[in-house]
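U., I forgot to send this yesterday:
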Amino acid sequence: MKNRICAALVIAACSASQANAGPAGYVCTIAAIQELGMTGSFAAHGGAFANLVGKTFAIDRRTGQVIGQPFTTGPNMEIRILDRGSDVDSYKQMIVLPPPNVWVRYIYVREQIKPVRKPFWATDYGNLIYSGTCE
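Result:
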């Protein structure tokens, strides 16, 4: 509930107008977490982050700021919005954490489909891939 309230506040703070189609922000719900195994195949993650299934995070499409684990952005992170999404393309964003331990997060939301719920997939700091839907 706390995540949904924070997400709603982030989206409310976003600019209501967008040059592209769609909302000023997303509230995303994690439906599954996959982990890259030692053989190169993905399998359901049952480790420390499994409790994030069902949790939400919010994305401001204008600034790229994210609130909610595991994607919360901070002051030392470089946010790169690669595409804000439209009726013909997906929202794409990278979040780069600075050295000495460089990590890259990637978030993809299939903005161009018509339903209100848009599928997403995202990576975190390492070998996990998250998927679910955004509204």
